[in-house]
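Limitations
The structure tokens in this dataset are predictions for the assembled complex, not deposited experimental models. Users should treat interface geometry with appropriate caution, especially where small molecules or nucleic acid strands are included. An illustrative entry is reproduced here so readers can see what is and is not provided.
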Amino acid sequence: MIEKSWAMDVKKTVEEIQHTYAEFTNLSILIVDSEGRPLVKPSAYHPFFKKLVEADGDTRERFWQEVRHYAGLTRPALCDLWLPGVKFIIAPFQSPARDAVYYVLAGVLIQSGTKDLLEEEVAGSGLYDEGRKLLYDLVLEAEELSDEEAEVWREKIGKLAETAERILRSAYRETYVRDRIADLRGILSTARKERISVGDTFEQFMALSSAADVMGYAQKIAPGEYRIAQVAGEGASGLQDAEFREGEGFLGQAALSDNPMQWTDIQRDPRAFFLKQRGVGEFYGLRCFPVRVGGEQLGILFIVSKKKVQTDALLREFEDTLIVLVGEYIASGTIEARMERQIQRLRPLMEVTRFMISAQNTQRIMFMLVDMSLSLVWNPSSAIIVHESSNGQKVQIVSRGIANDFAEQYARDVAKRVLRESPNSHSVGFELSQTEEGQLMIEYPIVYAGKTRGVLAVSLGSEQEAEECREVLLALATMGSIILQSVHDQQQLGLQNERFLRLMYASAKLGEDDQGKKKDLSLRLLDEYARYGGITTEESVLLQRATMLSLLNDTAKRELSEAFAEELAVLKEHQAMLDTEGQTGTFSFSRYTQILRTVLYFAELDEETASRLHLTGVSPELFNHFRKFMAVRHTVQSEVVLSDGHTAAFNPAEAEERGIDAIVKEFGLSKREKEVLELVVRASSNKDIAAKLFISEHTVKNHLTNIFNKMSVSDRAQAIARVFNRGIG
Amino acid sequence: MTISDQELLKLQMECTVFFENNPYAYETAKGLSKKLGRGVEPLQIVLNRLAAISILEKRGEGNMAIYSYKTPYTQSEVEIH
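Predicted assembly:
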């Protein structure tokens, strides 16, 4: 293969030199490989080797057997061939690949004074015909030489061997490197079109190298732990997925080094056991190359040589460079895969942003951050978000997968470490910390409004996992910070607007004494009705703002239209509702407007109880519920006045709770019956109760029958009355 | 056609948001498939993943398994000592 790739001019150069030496020494010269095959044409100056090459196979073989007797020569020597006294110079030299011995053969030299004797000896010898003729001619044509002259020719032929070795070696190197570069170019060209598997690069490298019998890549899977992710070579499949630790065997030792490592002649070394016992068998040498990206070690490339191979230093260097390239290829693949995994997570994260932006509530955002972080890491186990409360004196926690007491302890630690000691550190990076229990946590600060307000922490299995998840979690934490900032800004703006509205309301009340009192009563009713459970706190707060706005003049309303658009829309609809008063037909108004209309209607009354049984546009259920609330409120207030002699703060919800507790105790109601009664008192229909308790309406009726029997009442109205009587008693 | 990891993750997030918005929802994979307009098979994978990481609670097995949101531990008044 090597010979084929020789350039013609290299052959010609060697032939020229051979011819020059032949002319100079008057000897026949032939350069052969380790099997006796001529590397170049024999010199034509002296005919012996020309005739030998053209002779029959037996003659050639017989001659070659004679040469073989001298195998093992390391220096040029004068050797007897065929007959004692018929001498040839045999000059060995290393083959270009340094894997065999080639020879320069030169002859014939006949010691002075022996030619006649040899002629007789040859003529009388029993050699077969062609061989005898060749030898006879050889002896006839040979000149007698003195010992000194023979020594000079021996040295000269030795020089020829050295020169031939250098020329062939140089040509071989050039050809080898050129061929490998061509192979490499082919591989790179394919790799540009499609990513080649690591296994394929190993196969290709082993085809290029003379000293690689097994090649593998051990990937770092955890600090100090490696797994063989890819392996190629005969008998090496047992190594696939084998794991080892730093310091364990040769591979484990290589893992501790930042530089390539090499061991040879290690057949009996116990550190080779790991590779031997997994099918590699006996081997001579091992080379290991770290695969790194920046300061991070990704794994180790290793190459096993089963036998000793003499390799040229330059070619060895070329191979090492190739291995480093394979390492770079693996590293780029790892980084690419890592990036791809991160991108795979970043894209859905962008989608989540839409939902998070719509969640204008700190706790909802905290829920999302915890749940999303668990979805974004590879092996999730727990996540916690710690966020300072608005007054900065307490912290809020939302967590999953963490024991409650640990969550609180961790929150205090974060408060001390991050929120108190370095609140102005606006770092957007992450920090790895280890809890006392040995849990590895990756922490991201939640920074907004110029201050660190909290920490999102996710527990991870290893530092490597942290490395792979850090960017995507950073994106999540940053996104969370931005959204929390937006909520914070809106809350601040809302507070300012609210303060301004209250100021304007107070000012407007000065000129509207009677109306002012009624609006104040409306505000109180809305507050109490929320505590009674008739409306939510959010509904109450919005309607209180709408009530205050209703007292302002149109100019003031216009000034505040941007800040209180929703409240003004309710007021506008409320006006439309008033306009339909007395008209017949079907009207549809929002729940907000219906509540506002009802509250303002009751606040306008001189009497504490409404004389009307319905309001146009207000649902009968809502109206009746509020009327009941007003009745209870009135009763309780009267009772309180009578008993205490001063107006105490009334809390219908508390009265209701006290009443139910008393009824449960007095009549022995079951837990389920208590739940049903609580809903009855809040004016829930049988259908509502069934939906809320996940039971059928039929079951609700059964529970009600039992409750009424136990309480000795005939309907829900009596049951409600009894509850409130007990509550205020 | 197999669904990619990225699409599964997208669906996982969509399901998480759905259950966060509807904390009292009790859904089978089939029921949720109608609500979200997504295939039952990928939903099944995603719902089981969410149950495995304790975001959802799973009752029952197979097609009849019911999934509901598991509210995370929340404490809003932790004193800082």
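Some entries come with short summary sentences. For this one: Chain B has a mean pLDDT of 88.
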